[in-house]
Design a protein that fits this description.
Elements: H1 2-29, E1 30-36, E2 42-48, H2 53-58, E3 69-71, E4 75-76, E5 79-82, H3 84-87, H4 95-104, E6 114-116, E7 130-134
Length: 142
């Protein structure tokens, strides 16, 4: 009986501990990014593990115009330039991504650090990633 009374008395404390661990799990899924916009302003962006970089950028009201919807098939897209120290943390560029870069990005704007935001899925290794949003001109290919 005393044991049951103790369990009932301590139950609220344990339920709070569970919600704290749930908050920790949410925080573990958050990825902090720094994006340099077309004006040179650093914009902090939060994304979640599993989300594409394009989704994270399009979801930020300060960057939504930088990551336009280019088609119903491709969805949101951004040409980005990734800081050198993070290139090795990204998956290798695919042939399809290279083709899309040459299709949507002005040739003069393509660099070895050029990537498409829709092709990068956020993971814990990308926490702290710094990148710059670059020009994207899909209408020039029409």
């Amino acid at each position: 009986m005393l044991r049951n009374a103790l369990q009932q008395a301590l139950k609220p404390a344990f339920s709070g501990a569970r919600s704290l661990s749930a908050r920790t799990k949410v925080a573990d899924k958050m990825i902090a990014l720094t994006v340099v916009d077309s004006y040179g302003i650093r914009v902090p962006v939060l994304g979640t593990v599993g989300q594409t970089l394009a989704q994270a950028l399009a979801g930020n009201p300060n960057l939504a115009d930088s990551c336009p919807t280019i088609s119903p098939v491709h969805g949101n897209e951004c040409h980005i330039s990734v800081a050198k120290e993070y290139l090795s943390t990204l998956p290798d560029i695919t042939e399809e991504e290279e083709d899309m870069i040459f299709e949507f990005v002005p040739t003069a704007a393509i660099t070895p650090n050029s990537r498409l935001a829709s092709q990068i899925r956020l993971n814990r290794d990308l926490n702290g990633l710094t990148l710059a949003v670059q020009p994207l001109h899909p209408w020039k290919t029409l």
